[in-house]
Write a structure and sequence with these properties.
This protein is of the alpha/beta class. Helices cover about 30% and strands about 25% of the residues. The protein has a seven-stranded mixed sheet with strand order 3-2-1-4-5-7-6, sandwiched between helices. The model has no long low-confidence stretch (mean pLDDT about 90).
């Protein structure tokens, strides 16, 4: 059970898109995950609880969300690094095996495309960007943006009108 509050996404229960994303993520022991736009921490904390030795960094621009994510991590006795800031600003210079996000579609294309545009610089070679979006609210165009930017994008899970999309950083062959 997570602590939530007003002004954070999906405050009454983990939404179906986030559940699909958590279920689809393929994070191995001792890998690293950036939960970008973590909200109260559902994705990052689920992975931290279920994958041995994983290093999880969680970020959000919303101060209340960051406070809740820290509280939920303490309550769950999970060691995660929760940082406040916009997009990749809190993790400048760091690279991860995986970046996961249920992007704030309502914030507009500039924000959502900023996630895709910045991902390669923060992924290790062979690392994966995982995003979830509603099929009728931009998932097809998001997939095309991922394909154009990262050189590939696959639908790895579908359900309840959502698509979980994955792009893999492929060495220096990816498009910047």
């Amino acid at each position: 059970m997570f602590s939530t509050d007003t002004a954070v996404f999906s405050r009454f229960e983990v939404d179906r898109g986030t559940e699909l994303l958590i279920d689809a993520l393929d994070v191995k022991p001792c890998e690293s995950l950036l939960d970008l736009g973590c909200g109260y921490g559902a994705v990052g904390l689920a992975i931290a609880a279920s994958v041995e030795g994983v290093h999880v960094v969680m970020t959000d621009v919303n101060t209340r969300a960051v406070t809740l994510a820290r509280k939920n991590a303490r309550r769950s006795e999970l060691r995660v690094d929760v940082r406040e800031g916009s997009l990749f600003d809190p993790v400048g210079g760091l690279a991860f095996d995986h970046i996961a996000s249920n992007p704030p579609i309502r914030a507009g294309k500039a924000v959502v495309h900023g996630i895709v545009d910045g991902a390669s610089a923060h992924l290790l070679e062979g690392g994966s960007l995982w995003l979830v979006a509603r099929a009728k609210q931009g998932a097809p165009s998001l997939r095309e943006k991922m394909r154009a930017t990262m050189g590939n994008a696959e639908i790895v899970r579908r359900g309840s009108g959502f698509w979980v999309l994955q792009s893999v950083r492929q060495g220096d062959s990816h498009i910047r």
